[in-house]
Amino acid sequence: MSISVIAIDGPSASGKGTVAQRVASVLGFHYLDSGALYRLTALAAEKAGADWADEGAVAAVAEALDVVFAGEAVTLGGEDVSLAIRSEHIGVGASKVAALPAVRTALLQRQRDFAQAPGLVGDGRDMGEVIFPQAQLKVFLTASAEARAERRYKQLLGRGEVADLAAITADLAARDERDRQRPVAPLRQLPDARLLDTTAMGIEEAVATVLGWWQEQS
Ligand code: C5P
Asked: In the UniProt record, does the keyword ATP-binding occur (predicted)?
């Protein structure tokens, strides 16, 4: 029997991570935050002194990532980097290294290995297209650019970071553009994905919608 997979893709700061985590928790499924792997790769490359544009060097870093996910916490080589990978700087680096085909290949199997019984909710940009094309439910979760910038802004303030709404809006736009235009695994809504626009929707409603779709197809 194949493992149940729910693939949730969408742009930055759309809330897909929170929704995916909650859905996984309700269903008792595993959770894959694939963006974290690209963020970890960007951070590890920086620590190793590798340029984010150096495909060979960054792919080697991705291949060798010594990562442990333990609930909310992530360690890299034994060091807790849960907060470090969430900075805007590393987010930008993640979208740069994610555009390199050899880096995506290096992280492919590591992502597929998350699909364990009883099931998995994976969130990212290419969950439904590349990593889990067999997923029983595919969701494209988005929100307007303004709503997403506002959410990221509040998230950063909530963490006590200095945040500038205009800079965040510009960063998100540049990141989205890079994710949509890249030749490998570009961000796009698949024909077999259901669209969930959360611009005017709270988390609970978004979670309930995905759970409803899951029940429909099970
Ligand atoms: O989702 P998150 O903002 O953490 O992802 C950081 C970056 O990693 C994204 O901007 C995107 O470029 C890249 N990414 C990707 N494919 C995924 C997940 C994330 O290219 N499956």
From this structure: yes
